[in-house]
Amino acid sequence: MLNAKPKKALILALVATVGLAGCTRQPEPTITTVASSDVNCMARAMYFESNRSSRDGMIAVGSVLMNRVQSDDFPDTVCAVVSQKNQFAPGVMTKSMNDQGRALALASASAVLTGERHPKVSGARFFHAAWYTANFNNIHYVLTAGGNAFYEKRRPEDVTSPNPLPQTEGITG
Which residues does the UniProt record annotate as the domain Cell wall hydrolase SleB (predicted)? Predict the structure, then answer.
């Protein structure tokens, strides 16, 4: 049996050790949970809309989708936005994703759903194929990537970029 002084010293040493260990402890990482259905829906839109051509194009498509989810003008979930009639490529929710673009689409979808955005998309909620000529006076283009031209709808007098911009790649990670 230990006498009182060594026992007290042992307890103080343990308390000090535990206290110091707490000072060097790293904070627990924040874990963001993303529903697998959201990843699947987002990846499908990216895969079929960006021609599986580039990460920038996929991240831009995902950024537009998230802008729509956050807008009162569109449904409140990723899958509801992607499933909207006549908004995305025919068969976007039913066709198979079966080439190397699938892995890039899934990784890009996860990145967007955990917060990554294409910095040039800004508030854009629309895009069309880069080769398409839209004859409207309210389209303000912000980016062309992955075979698509991304744009905002503005009052005609506020449009400063009425034509699709040159293709840009290599901006996103």
Answer: 54-151
**Per-residue pLDDT for the chain (173 aa), expressed as one digit of tens each?**
445 444 444 444 434 443 444 444 444 443 345 568 899 999 999 999 986 778 999 999 999 999 999 999 999 999 999 999 989 888 899 999 887 789 999 999 999 999 999 999 999 999 999 999 999 999 999 999 999 999 999 999 999 999 999 999 989 97
Distance in angstroms between the alpha carbons of the first and the last residue of the chain: 63
119 domain residue, yes or no = yes
Indicate the length of the chain as a whole number: 173
Residue 73 lies in a domain: yes
**Would you say residue 151 lies in a domain?**
yes
Q: At 109, give phi and psi (nearest 5°).
A: -60, -45
Instruction: Give buried/exposed letters for 107-131 (b at 16+ CB in 10 A, else e).
Output: ebbbbbbeebbbebbeebbbbeebe
pTM given for the model: 0.78
Report the alpha-carbon distance of residue 101 to residue 127 in Å, rounded. Answer: 20
